[in-house]
Design goal:
Type Iii Antifreeze Protein Isoform Hplc 12, 2 domains, elongated, eight-stranded parallel β-sheet, alpha/beta, single chain
């Protein structure tokens, strides 16, 4: 699949997505600084989120609307989304700025109005958040825009994942990137279950990525070895900035390390065929081969005592030793001469 002209998967290095989310901390200038830093430190794309507090929930003080545990404990839902949202009036300016920085920008819409806004901005792809994977009407609406869809699977059952994929395919989306995800903030490496990358690839025949909320690169590297073509992590320009998502976001140094380590990991996988790398050729000399260990005359019969399997590797392969023994020499040889077919009758 392609996003903004860049191929993802099929022989391409892992695609790194820096999730800005709430890490603008209410400042468009900080959002721009974050976009610029993401580009500088190796991200292929910056992703934002498109919603308003009113599109997400009710401004209501009832118990159902209070967060009682986890990273956002103590927040009222409306207040959390009010603080974390990226204002709609910023979107065009951020899209234009990202283009100036030559980094791809797209977003996660949370309702139809958000989809329309992003489509008008010519967003090259749409992301469906883990929490929205069950919102099939939203997925249907996004799919009809006929652009690549990235779908995160945190919390989703097998049936919910299949419903989302079926809906996306039915209503026009041909390119789907399915993200394995654990919706915990931060998530533990031990619960990452990275083997799901392999399961998704085999079962659904789609490209697969990892939306990673852990605080290190272990899960990302494991995912790449199993075929993940994209890695998404929340990104903050400095841990000194405190916001709703800062505790599970990586900083510029960590992003740079993620880009480098996933690239090296991907390159190390190779083609998986039997062709040996050219770099090994210089060391072939240190293999064993057959050498004469005695001076011998033309016509002498070669016995096992006359030859040995030794380093270096300029003589015949050791596998020919039984074909050499009991044959006669065509010419005289000295101790340390290579055993070759030319000197044997």
């Amino acid at each position: 699949m392609f996003i903004d002209g860049k191929q993802i998967g099929k022989g391409s290095e892992p695609y790194i997505i820096a999730e800005l989310s709430a890490n603008h901390c209410g400042s468009i200038e900080l959002a721009k600084k974050t976009i610029k830093s993401a580009k500088k430190n190796g991200a292929d794309a910056i992703k934002i989120q498109t919603y308003t507090a009113n599109s997400m929930t009710l401004d209501c003080d009832k118990d159902d609307f209070l967060i009682k545990e986890g990273t956002w404990k103590g927040y009222k839902l409306f207040d959390l989304y009010q603080e974390a949202s990226t204002p709609y009036e910023w979107h065009k300016e951020l899209f234009d700025f990202a283009k100036e920085q030559e980094i791809t920008i797209f977003s996660t819409p949370f309702d139809e109005e958000a989809v329309d806004l992003l489509n008008d901005l010519d967003a090259p792809a749409f992301k469906i958040a883990s929490f929205e994977i069950i919102d099939l009407p939203l997925i249907k609406y996004v799919a009809k825009k006929n652009k690549p869809i990235l779908i995160s699977t945190g919390m989703a059952t097998k049936e919910e994942i299949e419903d989302a994929l079926s809906t996306a395919n039915k209503y026009g989306c041909g390119d789907i990137l399915l993200f394995h995800c654990v919706s915990d903030y931060p998530a533990s490496t031990e619960e990452s279950n990275i083997n799901m990358i392999k399961t998704f690839k085999e079962k659904y025949n789609v490209e697969v990525g990892l939306s990673d909320h852990t605080l290190n690169n272990t899960a990302a590297l494991a995912a790449v070895t199993l075929g993940a073509v994209a890695i998404e992590k929340h990104f903050i320009v400095s841990k000194d900035h405190k916001g709703p998502d800062s505790s599970f976001s990586i900083d510029p140094k960590q992003l740079r390390e993620l880009k480098l380590s996933t690239s090296e990991c991907w390159k190390s996988l190779g083609s998986g065929d039997f062709e040996r790398p050219a770099s090994e050729s210089k060391n072939m000399v240190f293999r064993r081969s057959l050498y004469f260990v005695d001076d011998m005359k033309s016509g002498d019969v070669i016995t096992k005592n006359h030859i040995k399997r030794l380093r270096p590797g300029y003589g015949l392969s050791p596998k020919f030793i039984d074909q050499i023994v009991n044959r006669k020499l065509k010419k005289s040889v000295e101790r340390g001469d290579r055993v070759t077919w030319e000197c044997i009758e």
